[in-house]
Amino acid sequence: MAENTAAGLTPSPLVKAAPLTWLDHVVNVIKLVIKELRSIRADPTMLVLVVYAFSISVNTVATGAVTDATNMSVGIVDEDGSALSRQIAEALLRPTFQPAVHISANEIDSSMDRGDFLFVVEVPPNFEADLRAQRKTQLQINIDATIVAQAGNGANYLKTAISNEIQSFLSGTTAAKSSPINLVVRTDFNPNLVTSWFSAMTQVINQITLLTVILTGAALIREREQGTVEHLLVMPVVPAEIMLAKMLANGLVILVAAMLSLQFVVHWWIGSPIAGSRLLFLLGAAEYALVVAALGILLGTLATTMGQFGLLAMPVLMVTQLLSGSSTPMESMPVWLQYVVKTVSPTPHFVSFSQAVLFRGADLSLVWQPLLAMFAIGSVYFIFALSRFRRVIFGS
Question: S-S: 84 plus which of 122, 128, 356, 374, CB 3.0-4.6 Å?
Fold first, then answer.
């Protein structure tokens, strides 16, 4: 330095790095996305989980855990021995009912205590004769209510079947009366009320929520545990680029798996029709995946280990799914709870959007409100998660 000064040379000032342009930010995000995808590829356990969740799990939940009233066991105590009582017993057909089993009156309590029958129908003496004479009579149905779902639905099926047989039997007598109203029920979108159609699509929606949060949060926790997050601190990248790359990479994996599951598992394997546009559903699912990915980042900044992250994510995901409207209708919840859930959670809006598109074939003009609500909630999630990410990871 002294020689240069003596020679009349002045030291050159430090060269400042040029500010990053928007194109530089895009390139950085793309490179970070590729890094995240390679990290996901290097984790075979996580890949197996994603494949299982969107294939076997969807089919199992849709076809295995069926709450429909099917294959119900019925015992009949026929103390009348008439043509009508035999006709009632013969009307209980598969697949709704098992063939009726005739038992005696003193076997009712013991057989139901053993769980042999879900229903026991008692036909009293002179049942047919009292009906023909238009005298008041009663028919008793004993129900095993320990099987709540089938007991409630099955009782309605059983009462309808018995009423139809009585009306049919009496149609040729003077006791029969024509109904003043001919009630015709038409079911849209799912004419046969197949539960597996609804359950399969609901399970795909739930898996998008579950796995996007888990993958995104686990990616952040894994880097913090392995110490590789410090490498990002010395790279010419900003926190928003790192966070956005994790959201995009993990969301992309989940979206690909979800769309494949929708086509091959839900539509081809289970046989559920898809009424609406797959492209519109993909756009809505992509928006939702980014929203819940931001939630995963937020949870990842609140936990320091994978165990803590799992314990923190479980109640959040459970409450989110139970109050999303996919398992139970939103209308069955208290009004104040509906407003709270729709304000703080994007899941009810995504469930509403998905059902409208996939079941009812709605277009963009009918589902723009859920999309707008998801965008608003997601913006709040992203800002809050980015603030936490900067403070926890970058210390700023």
Answer: 128
